[in-house]
Design goal:
317 residues; mainly alpha; Cytochrome Bc1 Complex, Chain D, domain 2; 56% helix; metal-binding; heme; ion transport; membrane; electron transfer activity
Length: 317
């Protein structure tokens, strides 16, 4: 925060409290010309107004809140850039990366700083760390049958994964459905865990420059035919000859390859849409979807539980 805004906020804050104090003092003075307790000679609907002072208990309470306001502003941050005498912070400010956040958190713990976020994280780790550690000692297959473990895994999924894959894990355009047992990088526990830990970076190139617009139409027709779709047979036959450039990743039979994250083109499940227009867009411009790595964010123990939850979703399919 710049010095100007720091001073501006401080002046307004302190001025407001001081204004309340002066207003209270003004209201305590009798400026009516009528002795306290006497009739103000004003009556309405049988109610007579008496010149009574402010209640003493209310006045004392008002003074107390003003004093507390000054004490609070002295101890805690609230006046612009002033951090307060206690050095308390709600969180580490101006953090621009996960690495910076972790370094600041470690420094707070080492120095005993009054950083609320770091203290809350430390308390949570002390309380829940042993629980996650115990779960991590069990296999994913075992956890996938434990309802209590799955509830924990589901909460972690909802907090961290549902933004892309949906709260029901059925995905959306560009984000895989995790319930259908159709996996780009493999669906066994080890492969799922690796995906969550390390993330994935898709790299399907654009083919329009190599194939031309007509070549794209032909390859799209052949790709659609692999899943039993009705297409122009002439275009499909021409596309089959050019499919060799696609087979390097998708295989000669079009069934995909886990090593490259290349999808199976024969099952009629399409990540970016299966219409002719959507597939044409994919072949023309390529796809470069990115799933972030969660190892440094959640840690391996929590990812172990998320893996069990995700793995369980497709086991009845």
């Amino acid at each position: 925060m710049s010095s100007f805004w720091s001073i501006w906020i401080s002046v307004i804050t302190l001025g407001t409290i001081l204004g309340c104090f002066l207003l209270l003092r003004w209201c305590l003075k009798n400026k009516t010309g009528v002795k306290e307790g006497d009739d103000m000679h004003h009556e309405f609907d049988g109610i007579v107004e008496i010149n009574n002072p402010l209640p003493r208990w209310w006045t004392i309470m008002f003074y107390a809140t003003i004093v507390w306001g000054f004490i609070y502003l002295a101890l805690y941050p609230g006046l612009g850039n002033f951090k307060g005498l206690l050095g308390w912070e709600s969180s580490n400010q101006d953090i621009r990366s996960l690495a910076e956040s972790k370094a600041a958190h470690a420094e707070d713990l080492a120095n005993g700083s009054l950083n609320e976020y770091s203290r809350a994280m430390a308390a949570a780790e002390e309380r829940f760390g042993p629980i996650f550690e115990a779960y991590a000692q069990r296999s994913v297959e075992d956890l996938a049958t434990d309802q209590e473990a799955l509830k924990v895994g589901q909460r972690l999924f909802l907090q961290n994964c549902s933004q892309c894959h949906g709260s029901d894990a059925r995905g959306q355009r560009g984000f895989p459905d995790l319930t259908d047992n159709d996996w780009l990088y493999g669906g066994n526990p080890a492969q799922i865990k690796e995906t969550i830990m390390q993330g994935r970076h898709a790299a399907m190139p654009a083919w329009v420059d190599s194939l031309g617009e007509q070549g794209v139409k032909e390859v799209v027709a052949y790709a659609l035919s692999l899943s039993g779709r009705k297409v122009d047979p002439v275009l499909a036959d021409a596309g089959k000859a050019q499919f060799a450039v696609c087979a390097a990743c998708h295989g000669q039979d079009g069934k995909g390859n886990y090593a490259f994250g290349a999808p199976d083109l024969t099952d009629n499940i399409w990540l970016y849409g299966g219409s002719e227009m959507a597939v044409t867009e994919t072949v023309t411009h390529g796809r470069n979807g990115v799933m972030p790595a969660w190892k440094d964010i959640l840690g391996e123990n929590k990812i172990h539980l998320v893996t069990a939850y995700v793995y369980s979703l497709s086991q009845d399919q």
